[in-house]
Write a structure and sequence with these properties.
By secondary structure, the protein is of the alpha/beta class. It is built from nine helices and twelve strands. α1 (75-85) packs across α7 (216-230), α1 packs across α8 (248-256) and α7 packs parallel to α8 (248-256). The chain starts with 19 loop residues before the first strand and ends in a 9-residue tail after the last strand.
Length: 305
């Protein structure tokens, strides 16, 4: 797998935030009930503000990019993945900083704690986002994007990287083993039963990384954002596995990351299949220990003997 040099972002010390909390519940039986304690996922809003400067200009432009619900934790990775999937950045080095946002009053008091639900993303000077794309994103993201050919055209305009076209490198056994490998490391799901997961696997089907969140899209953004910060996976022989169904947005994020194989334990939508065919993504659903459904891209699989 190819690697890349990493430019550390300003103040990127990991921030410890709880992802679960304990609550009381009554467990009902046929003739009784008991008071118990349970772990549930935390769900809070995440606001992302985008800052940028036109080259050779000292004027800083500012605009709210997104407000989304997520499970706290891995916020920098989530934001990085979102920046990539929406075409704001192509490389990690285009980011200058990702920091919790302080208002003017808070910034005067160094001992004040920033709001961990509001973040600022500053792009390097000269990296200018497409304003129309930002406006489109704000309007449509909460309702899962645009429809039909408009969505496919929108993805084309983001200039996604060309996917690896190598043949016969991913085996049947490797694919079938992935859901079990992912489930074994889903710590938040074990605690709460309420999280989605996205996992990255290498050519041999070995688990590279896994991220969890209450939202499917967020889990994938966290996974791909963390990968972008550590290595260049675009064009390499890796696969992404998601715990739920495959929507168009899941395909978009995978394609924009340059990953050629997308696998799910659930079903793909019709538009997801159309997008996979348009961008030559290998798309697999209903994955179990005994088999799976393949909707496009069979040439990347090792032929069955």
């Amino acid at each position: 797998m190819k690697t890349m040099s990493i430019k550390p972002l300003l103040n990127t010390k990991p921030i410890k935030t709880p992802s679960t909390t304990e609550v009381k519940k009554f467990r009902y039986y046929a003739n009784d009930r008991t008071l118990e304690h349970d772990q549930v996922l935390i769900e809070q809003p995440l606001q992302i503000r985008l800052l940028w400067q036109v080259e050779n200009s000292e004027i800083t432009h500012s605009q709210i990019f997104s407000i989304t619900m997520r499970t706290p934790g891995d916020d920098r990775a989530l934001i990085t993945g979102l920046m990539q999937s929406e075409g704001i950045i192509e490389h990690y080095q285009q980011l200058e900083s990702i920091l919790p946002e302080l208002d003017e009053q808070e910034s005067k008091h160094s001992n004040r704690v920033a709001d961990q639900n509001q973040w600022e993303v500053k792009l390097n000077s000269g990296v200018v986002p497409d304003i129309k794309s930002l406006e489109r994103f704000q309007v449509t993201y909460s309702s899962c994007g645009l429809c039909g050919t408009t969505s496919l055209k929108s993805l084309e305009l983001k200039n996604p990287p060309r996917l690896n076209q190598s043949k016969h490198w991913l085996s049947f056994d490797a694919i079938c083993s992935m859901p079990s490998l992912m489930r074994e490391t889903q710590t938040q799901f074990v605690q709460t039963g309420g999280s989605h997961a996205a996992a990255l696997f290498d050519q041999q089907g070995r688990l590279i990384d896994i991220k969890e969140d209450i939202g499917r899209h967020n889990a994938l953004d966290k996974l791909l954002g963390a990968s972008l910060a550590l290595r260049d996976i675009s064009g390499t022989k890796v696969s992404v596995l998601v715990s739920g169904r495959i929507s168009f947005e899941i395909v978009q994020k995978t394609v924009m990351a340059g990953v050629a194989v997308l696998i799910a334990v659930g079903a793909p939508s019709e538009l997801a299949i159309s997008a996979a065919k348009r961008f030559d993504l290998t798309l697999i659903g209903f994955t179990k220990k005994t088999g799976f459904n393949l909707y496009h891209g069979d040439w990347r699989l090792v032929p069955l003997t």
